[in-house]
């Protein structure tokens, strides 16, 4: 196939001048630059040349179309090849995306794009603010420059002071789950301590000698095991909020939303579980030991879990552990996302003549081994927690091993009840391709069953809904 006859794309002309200059390299100093400028480039009618046929290429096409550009993809595979992403194939067949069926060549940069810029303005520098390694920017697309400055100040004032410095002190697990204010307060010494603690926890099993309780040594403090609910602070129970606000030490799982962690008083100590691949068991024991040590010092401890502590939260295991140590533990319920997330996504888990039962499953078994998928029951709504990271294998097991029909509707619900909630609706046939294209936004869960289309049906392969 040949490239579609789109308007030519922008290619900046280049010039060359040869000059001989004697330079003393000893006098050269490395200049200090501010962070890169943010640009907002008008793209309506531009050609975006994209190489490849995978999920990333499909996502690039989607974004190009959203800004009014005309994407053209180049790849040698035929459209019926399994290598071609489903969403990309559909856009090509619908005529939304141009298609050149061959291997990319350097000359394509000259033959498939514009030859000159003329007087066209192809870059707009947005109103930006700098702090440390961070840049925040606002553009009003040329409609109001003074308003852009005001909007940027408003956005900047809502961020913790010094947030740019956090960009220079990033650590993957910490940056993904810690509250922003805690990142701002992070010092070089804190980072060194974290490295030392991580090294210790991965190289040497944690000693349990410090947790051995003698008959005469009785705990002086208290501990409460509480659920944080799905994520929105307003959904915390009053009992849980009271416990959180009065605690000396909060031991939190890393998936507890930052909105909940931001409620922790400054006087309290917050410790977030260092659970990462290969360290889950050691990190769990570390939390328990820290809790026991604090109790023995007479402190009030809160063990903070996502959702409800007894719904795939290992809450009962922790209850048993502290009970063996002679500690009485208070357990406070939380609203589980297994029931609240479908509600926020307009999915009634039960509905007359559609679904008369609910099954809650986990997608991650002990030591990471996936559990056996459930059998298909047409009148059942099935909710999978902790499954989005292995969605492809889960769906494959449901369809190929357990015989679930591919047309069964389903949804991935991410960050339920939060302002940045996202719902991806589809069927078992297309849900994996949908998530590959839009990416993941943890934490999330997977809902499958005919109740998923009672209130909202999908027109096409999938749909994406942003926000509450």
TrEMBL record:
Q: Where is the Tetrapyrrole methylase domain?
A: 223-431
Reaction equations catalysed: uroporphyrinogen III + 2 S-adenosyl-L-methionine = precorrin-2 + 2 S-adenosyl-L-homocysteine + H(+)
Domain (Siroheme biosynthesis protein Met8 C-terminal): residue spans on this chain: 169-202
- At the top level, the lineage of the source is Eukaryota
Listed GO MF terms: uroporphyrin-III C-methyltransferase activity
Query: Compositional bias (Low complexity) spans?
Result: 199-214
**NCBIfam families (alphabetical):** cobA_cysG_Cterm
Name of the protein this chain belongs to: uroporphyrinogen-III C-methyltransferase
Species annotation: Orbilia oligospora (Nematode-trapping fungus)
Output the lineage of the source organism: Eukaryota, Fungi, Dikarya, Ascomycota, Pezizomycotina
């Amino acid at each position: 196939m040949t490239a579609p006859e789109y308007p030519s794309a922008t290619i900046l002309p280049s010039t060359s001048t040869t000059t001989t200059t004697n330079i003393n390299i000893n006098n050269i100093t490395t200049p200090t630059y501010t962070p890169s400028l943010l640009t907002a480039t008008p793209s309506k009618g531009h050609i975006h040349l994209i190489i490849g046929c995978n999920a990333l290429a499909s996502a690039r096409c989607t974004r190009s179309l959203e800004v009014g550009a005309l994407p053209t993809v180049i790849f040698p595979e035929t459209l019926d090849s399994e290598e071609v992403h489903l969403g990309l194939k559909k856009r090509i067949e619908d005529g939304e995306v141009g298609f050149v069926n061959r291997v990319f060549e350097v000359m394509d940069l000259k033959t498939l794009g514009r030859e000159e810029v003329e007087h066209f303005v192809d870059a707009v520098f947005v109103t930006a603010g700098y702090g440390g390694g961070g840049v925040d920017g606002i553009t009003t697309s040329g409609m109001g420059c003074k308003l852009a400055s005001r909007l940027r100040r408003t956005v900047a004032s809502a961020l913790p002071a010094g947030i740019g410095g956090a960009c220079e002190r990033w650590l993957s697990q910490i940056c993904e789950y810690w509250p922003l204010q805690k990142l701002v307060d992070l010092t070089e010494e804190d980072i060194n301590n974290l490295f030392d603690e991580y090294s210790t926890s991965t190289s040497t099993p944690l000693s349990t000698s410090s947790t051995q309780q003698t008959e005469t040594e009785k705990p002086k403090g208290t501990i409460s095991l509480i659920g944080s609910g799905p994520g929105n602070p307003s959904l915390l129970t009053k009992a849980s909020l009271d416990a959180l606000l009065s605690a000396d030490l909060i031991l939190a799982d890393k998936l507890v939303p930052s909105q909940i962690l931001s409620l922790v008083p400054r006087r309290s100590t917050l410790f977030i579980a260092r659970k990462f691949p290969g360290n889950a068991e050691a990190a769990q024991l570390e939390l328990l030991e820290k809790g026991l040590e604090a109790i023995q010092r007479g402190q009030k401890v809160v063990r903070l879990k996502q959702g409800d502590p007894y719904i795939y939260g290992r809450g009962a295991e922790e209850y048993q552990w502290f009970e063996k140590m002679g500690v009485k533990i208070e357990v406070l319920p939380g609203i589980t996302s297994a029931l609240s997330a479908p509600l926020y996504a307009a999915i009634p888990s039960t509905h007359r003549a559609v679904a008369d039962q609910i099954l809650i499953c986990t997608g991650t078994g002990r030591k990471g081994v996936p559990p056996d998928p459930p059998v298909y029951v047409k009148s059942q709504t099935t909710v999978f927690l902790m499954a989005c990271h292995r969605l492809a294998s889960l769906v494959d097991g449901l369809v190929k091993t357990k015989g679930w029909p591919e047309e069964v509707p389903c949804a991935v619900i991410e960050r339920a009840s939060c302002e940045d909630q996202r719902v991806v609706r589809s069927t078992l046939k297309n849900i994996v391709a949908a998530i590959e294209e839009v990416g993941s936004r943890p934490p999330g869960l997977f809902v499958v069953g005919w109740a998923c289309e009672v209130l909202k049906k999908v027109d096409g392969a999938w749909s994406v809904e942003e926000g509450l």
